[in-house]
Amino acid sequence: MDPLYSYGSAQNHILKQLDPIHHPGLRLALGAFRTSPVKSLYAETEECSLALRRQKLSMDYYWKIKYLPNNPCYNSISNAALPELFAKSNTVPPFGTRTLLDILNAELDPKRRDDRCERIPAPWEEHNITFDRSLTSLKKEDTSEMVVRQEYAQPREKYAAYNEAFTYGSKKEKVAATSSYPKDPD
Question: Which secondary structure element, helix H or strand E, spans residue 180, and what is its range?
Answer without folding.
Answer: strand 175-182
